[in-house]
Amino acid sequence: MGKQGIWQCPSCFCYNFHLFCIQKIVNAGLSSQQYPSWSCPNCHTYFPFSARPTEYLCFCGKTKDPQPDPWLPPHTCGQICDRTFPGKCGHKCTRECHPGPCGQCAKTELLTCFCGKDQQMLICGSSRYSCAQPCGKPKPCGVHTCALPCHEGDCGACQETIQKPCECGKVELVGPCSSPLSCGTPCKKAKNCGHHVCERVCHGGDCGACPGSLPRYCYCGKKKIVKPCWEEVSESCMETCHKLLECGIHRCEERCHKGPCSKCREVREKRCICGKKTKKVQCCMEFRCEVKCKNILNCTKHECGQRCCLGNCSACPRACNNLLNCGNHRCQSTCHAGSCQKCPLTMTLYCKCKKVQKTVDCGKKMILPHLVDKSCLGEHKTVQVPCDTKFVDCDIPCGNLLACGNHACTLPCHYVSLRRDAQYFLKEKKKEGEEEEFEMVREMPPDTCMDCTSPCLKQERPCSHPCELGCHPHNCLPCEVPLKFKCHCGKSKMNIPCCKTLDEKELELLICCGHFCDKKFQTCNHFCELRCHPGECSPQECTKKVVVKCKCNKIKKNWTCMKLREEIQSQKLASYQTDILPCDENCQKIS
């Protein structure tokens, strides 16, 4: 499958399908009208028919028909993945082109805890956190502080338990600091009369005046009743009310009663307001005839039109709304006779460059532009043009340094949104991972220089491998070309990035496979028990057990191979042998 085109599912990232097989499954006897969608054979995620695979792409999607490379994993292009991580951070994957999902963004950002006491560098996308310290923010009471562990949102009302008087001040109660306390009993404070007490349940503020201490009359107001507040009174004098009704002619014939008098129901002949008609109606009713007033109003344009008008017609209530002489505004006065006044407003006119202004009556035209010195889009030269000229271009090539920092833009003179020079690439970044921000100088449509398409030609690497990146401003990345090495013991082969082979000590550690050496010593025929190691195996450190005996094999002892070698060297024997023990008297007796 490494030499044949494959298809990777964008949902489950499974890539065990030949491109030809997937196309055959999708296209065999199907059409977008009959089957508007198709699904992945592995995860069964549905895709529109228009999204059927038509090209063989590498895993990151940058290279079409990637060629097999013995130094790269199959179906990869060797470039930086550069796919955007899932989520809202907007960062891109910096790994080399790889199968499967890009995982989680590993960049960090400085976040503050809820209470603001602590800051931590957390992985991109993390939410604010709790530092677990006491919050310490002041409560609404202004006396206590929040004792909860660092938390999100408001601290809430103060729940500290304190002893304080109730609202009426009779007893001391224990309760929350922020809540008023009520004892639940009547207030019982003396009223201003000195005879009554407040019957309201425990409350704050003034108790108010005693209702019985105010002057009291009967309902009709004829009879004043003077009694102490603690004595009840009969509030009706039982006489005829005789209050003047709203009509101003008749009086109330009811007995002294509570509340307002009823409307006058006496029927009499009344004349309408304009005086043209009469009719018998109830006294409380207003009579208006149906005759409309035909007087011309002060505007000399409209009739009054009111029903049963007295003749003193008011000014025309309509708005004039005629267009004024300026042609921009309408008359805001009420409808009037004669022509409208000229527009009272003035306006400040500017030339196109906003540097010359003039205050004129509303409706005047724009003032003429004046000549100004203006640079061309690429800021190569300055010419005199009318101030309303939007932009000037020349035939000189742009010449601005490209993003690579090595080549200049060769496009014709155009607007440069980001001016680069030799000092631009020497400026330090304000924050790690963020480029320094530059202020836009002109308010013009954004434009950029061409992209540099040259390969990297720097000779910075100590090895012979070229830089895989395109032309770029900074130092080349360490060489990641894999080199094949055998381990020290020769059992394993491993691929090591070229950049890690420059240091001999580091290389010796990297090519250690971790297995037992197992090389055979030439003298003792034992095997080396050390882990894979550089250099020759040392037989002087052999710890295998050997049986050492005398010449007649009567005396036998268990020694380590290392001890045997030391004894051989001390006796200056020519070869490795085990019968080096001297015979004793018992050996001679037995023999």
UniProtKB/TrEMBL annotation:
Residue intervals passing through the bilayer: none
Record carries keyword Repressor: no
Domain of life from the UniProt record: Eukaryota
GO cellular component, one term: nucleus
Keywords attached to this entry: Metal-binding, Repeat, Zinc, Zinc-finger
Position of the signal peptide: none
One of the Pfam families matching this protein, by short name: zf-NF-X1
Keyword match Zinc: yes
Positions of the NF-X1-type domain: 89-107, 141-160, 193-212, 247-266, 299-318, 326-345, 404-423, 463-481, 524-544
UniProt family annotation: Belongs to the NFX1 family.
Protein's name in the database: NF-X1-type domain-containing protein
Organism (species): Arcella intermedia
